[in-house]
Amino acid sequence: MTDKVKELVSKCLQARDMAYCPYSRFPVGAAILTAEGAIITGCNVENASYGLTVCAERTAIQRAVVEGYRQFTAIAVTCDIKDRFVGPCGACRQVLMEFGSDWIVYLTKPDGSYKETSLSELLPLAFSPAHLAKN
Known about the structure:
Order of helices and strands: HEEHEHEEH
Helix content: 25-40%
Strand order of the largest sheet: 2-1-3-4-5
Radius of gyration: 14 Å
């Protein structure tokens, strides 16, 4: 594991600990690696009006955009499930795709072990901004 991947995994675990999830009690953390090498974190933030809940991955993307980043290379995602790797929900996969298909995705367990995959593998035949280009 490279130092940057180790840091990315560590930061997603720390972000999970900040989750606001009084309804589901399902904390999720995410850490995004920008093309410039910065790491931006996010956690899920629930709402009593359930549909207004924001996932950790989208929180991290929104924070990164506010900070001026638009190019990303990787994301690490974690939750409290210990016996298997859990990926981002479908909505989050689509939001990540907005910023490119070449993401490395680290599905991370609470003990820090991870499985490396890609956004293209998690969201095959994805709809992307390229589909909106005029012919």
